[in-house]
Specification:
- With 358 residues, this protein is α/β, with parallel strands linked by helices.
- It has twelve helices and 19 strands.
- Strands 4, 6, 7, 10, 11, 18 and 19 form a seven-stranded mixed β-sheet that branches. A six-stranded parallel β-sheet has the order 14-13-12-15-16-17, sandwiched between helices. A four-stranded mixed β-sheet has the order 3-8-9-5, with no helix packed on it.
- Helix 5 runs parallel beside helix 6 and helix 5 crosses helix 11.
- The longest helix is centred in the last third of the chain and has 13 residues.
- The protein starts with a strand and ends with a strand.
């Protein structure tokens, strides 16, 4: 089958090959035919080494498709079912799951170290235990979540990661209050979803911050009340909050520098929500006096900060009701052979989300 493979961490280009085999099918597993997958910035971060991932590997974790076969012991799924890929499935048994914090379950992360593909030259890993830049993939049954027939594969793919992450940051983690002021730093696919989440929560002002003009323009279409370049944030803070700072600031870049900017633009007693996934050696610093004196809440948000199955259902309900716009988030569509063009478009900020159709 065909798949896009990164041979070594640090390479910028993927090689589309036709000698890849999906392996590992057996009890508790399902084999999927991927129909659509989104390109998420985490894929690029794994390729560059910012996020840890053994190589060679197949990127992609934001996918949807059809069940080809189910292994022994799998219930609730049958061949032909339409599903989205959940890259962080809950085991239901660990302490995090029992506390209701299923987004912190580590079972899915353990899958990242087990190859689920093979080539004549040896084993190939799937990013985050999945790897959706491919025609077929074998995953645990918990990673295949059934979707209603009226949800297109490309919409389901976005819900599988970026949309759920952004919406959940605003709704689950920060719990944005109606009438509040919000700033979102970083307006790619996840940032746009965060803006939509703040709008759903009835924030009064939503300021989008991004260096790319096309992304600022897009943010206004998705619910931002104002969009500024990074050098315009100080002026927006002064005009909108009287210099006090925003009630909620979302960092959706994954860098300590932007997290520090977010902290400084959060009002005393306000909330900084860290959504971006960054590098292990990039340290965010606050001094002990300001940490105590400002009483700013610093809330990381992992995969939307809540039960992902409930979050998937909520995203579908909001989409059906017209409360969020997911179709317009897909700014580019390519076939698998165009994956490197899609990567370039993401790196330059030209795209919000690219749908790779398989």
């Amino acid at each position: 089958m065909r798949a896009a493979v990164l041979h070594e961490t640090g390479q910028e280009k993927l090689e589309v090959l036709d000698d890849v085999e999906a392996v590992g099918f057996g009890p508790g597993k399902v084999k999927l035919r991927i129909r659509a997958t989104g390109l998420c910035h985490s894929d690029v971060s794994a390729m560059s080494g910012v996020l840890p991932q053994p190589a060679p590997f197949i990127p992609g974790h934001e996918g949807a498709g059809e069940v080809i076969d189910v292994g022994d012991g799998v219930t609730g799924l049958s061949a032909g079912d339409r599903v989205l890929v959940c890259w962080l499935p809950a085991c239901g048994e660990c302490p995090s799951c029992k506390r209701g914090q299923t987004q912190l379950c580590l079972a899915g992360f353990m899958n990242a170290g087990t190859p689920n593909f093979r080539r004549p030259g040896g084993d190939v890993f799937g990013f985050a235990g999945t790897g959706t830049f491919t025609e077929e993939v074998v995953v645990g049954a918990g990673s295949a979540v059934p979707i209603p027939d009226d949800v297109p594969f490309e919409i389901a793919a976005l819900i599988g990661c970026g949309v759920t992450t952004g919406l959940g940051a605003a709704i689950n983690t920060a719990k944005v209050e109606a009438g509040s002021s919000v700033a979102v730093i970083g307006c790619g696919g996840v940032g746009i979803s965060t803006i939509q989440g703040a709008r759903v929560q009835s924030a009064a002002q939503i300021i989008a911050v991004d260096p790319v003009a096309s992304r600022r323009e897009a943010a206004l279409r998705f619910g931002a009340t104002e969009a500024v370049a990074p050098d315009g944030l100080a002026d927006a803070k002064q005009r909108i909050t009287g210099g006090e700072g925003f009630d909620y600031v979302f960092e959706v870049v994954g860098k300590s520098a932007t997290a520090r900017t977010a902290y400084e633009n959060t009002r005393r007693g306000g909330t900084l929500c860290v959504v971006g996934a960054g590098a292990m050696d990039d340290n965010f610093q606050v001094n002990m006096f300001e940490l105590f004196f400002d009483e700013k809440r610093i809330l990381p948000s992992m995969y939307g900060g809540g039960d992902v199955l409930r979050s998937f259902d909520r995203a579908i309900a909001l989409w059906r009701a017209g409360r969020i716009d997911l179709e317009s988030m897909i700014t580019h569509r390519v076939r698998l052979d165009g994956v490197n063009d899609a990567l370039d478009q993401m790196r330059t900020g030209e795209s919000l989300r690219t749908c790779i159709e398989l």
